[in-house]
Amino acid sequence: MKSLKKISLALSSILLCAALPANAEHQVSLTINTDQQGAQINKNIYGQFVEHLGRGIYEGIWVGNNSDIPNTNGFRNDVVTALKELKVPLMRWPGGCFADEYHWRDGIGDPAKRPTKVNTHWGGVEENNEFGTHEFFQLAEMVGSETYVNGNLGTGTPREMAEWLEYMTSDKNSTLANERRKNGRDKPFKVDYFAIGNEAWGCGGHMRPAYYADLYMHWATFLKAPKGHTPKFIASGGSGNVRGLEWTDVLSKNITRNMDAISYHYYTLPTNKWDVKGKAIGFPESEWNSTIVNTLKIDEFIAQNLEVLEKNDPKGKIGFYVDEWGTWYDAEPGREPGFLYQQNTIRDAVVAAANFNIFHHYAERVRMTNIAQMVNVLQAMILTDKEKMLLTPTYYAYQMYIPFQDSTHLTVDINQMDYEKVGEDKFPAVSVSAAKGQDGKTYLALVNLSATESSEVKVDLKGQTANSAQGQQLTANTLDAHNTFNKPNQVKPKAYKIKAKSGKFSFDLPARSVTVVKLD
Ligand code: AHR
After folding, report:
1. What CATH code is carried by the domain that includes residue 422?
2. Could you tell me the CATH number of the domain that includes residue 387?
3. Which residue owns the Cα nearest ligand 1 atom 2?
4. Mind listing the pLDDT tens digit for each residue in 365-384?
5. Based on the domain organization, do 369 and 413 belong to the same domain?
6. Which of 101, 130, 324, 453 is labelled catalytic?
7. Range of the structural domain that residue 207 is part of
8. 97 C-alpha vs ligand 1 centroid, how far in Å?
9. Nearest-angstrom CA–CA distance, 155 and 134
10. Does the Cβ of 372 fall within 6 Å of ligand 1?
11. What is the pLDDT of residues 230-282, one digit of tens each?
12. What is the tally of structural domains in the chain?
């Protein structure tokens, strides 16, 4: 905390910080600095993570050619269509912890001849390797996403990793490139990002950061791709505050070549305890509040890590990629605990949007993030049950924020009081972000973080004129409102439009809501 004064937090624009009595209505005023354009908000901040875990891939995305579930070449039509509509910019695969036990040769060639392995991390289930390298790139191409492949450092070899990259990217007449051609892919796959290991401090090998840094330098030396096709290379960093800072520091000091970014993980647990994390639905209001408090901690964690990077890499070459984040709740009773399936409520949508606003603030180095995970796992966009599919509140939060992809960040000065309900659970009533979209228009996102209280937000555009604010609002009647397979449209955004009065806007934000508008 001692360095806090020096660092600029996304929420530091709060000018007034005093506790209000419960049930007070919140008055917030803000100015969008339309004349001060900041960093580009890289579209890959809206990236997704897809791991061989539970029903995240099998059933969730891949059902195979012979399935009764409508599919194209084995990929579910309903899920692929929903992902395309979401404009998913990037997908990370095959893990996670799974990545450090994944041997790429198991997932190429005739599917009938691929070996069956045991997924030791996630439920001890059989992994028949039907979904492999070719299927991953087909999926990304169908959806229109960039690709992020996570290599196996934990149980692989430098040779295995180097050969995988050659197999995917070579345009030569080499035996490996020809094997790819024989397996049905003539031109090289486009690998946009490649990581060396995952969570090396934990499931990836329980290493010290200095040891990992040495391994990274060694292995990265042999990762070669044709000119113009070299992916951005990512070193697997830390998580949380303590471990995160040490890893960021050691890696940025000791990895002196072939590293474009350091990754970072942070999960939001309502209780902040891994043994009893808190429920996905049917939770008390106190857990709404603690979830918000815990998710907003990422703001300070990112700020502290970036401070370390500023010191070790003042030219800003090294990106800071939050390649795993999101809510993590207790497993639903009766479900396989290793599958990490959880329901997704309006609370998750609010958490997602609050995180987007924080990522925008640090967009200069936070050029990519991947929510965990895309389908059926943790804070998912999509849930499936055999042939049924539903879109979660988190899906809609991502959809509402599409105009922020590749936009330009605008700073906002906010004047608001903290919302305080119980004890230490204190957080600002409203989280805000603004940007100049690719269409040249100003976009504003307003998230009412409160479980129960509404806010009125007055917006000044600092001289810029706009007559209307038009977009969508997502809210719900209960704290744990969610979509089910029988009632898939319970939580869905509605059109929202207000007019300016004397050049200023006044937004009424219901409790637990996300509002994204274009100011025109
Ligand atoms: O997303 C689930 C798991 O969380 C990932 O496999 C791992 O990297 C992290 O601990």
Report:
1. 2.60.40.1180
2. 3.20.20.80
3. 96
4. 999 999 999 999 999 999 99
5. no
6. 324
7. 41-405
8. 6
9. 22
10. yes
11. 999 999 999 987 787 999 999 999 999 999 999 999 999 999 999 999 999 99
12. 2
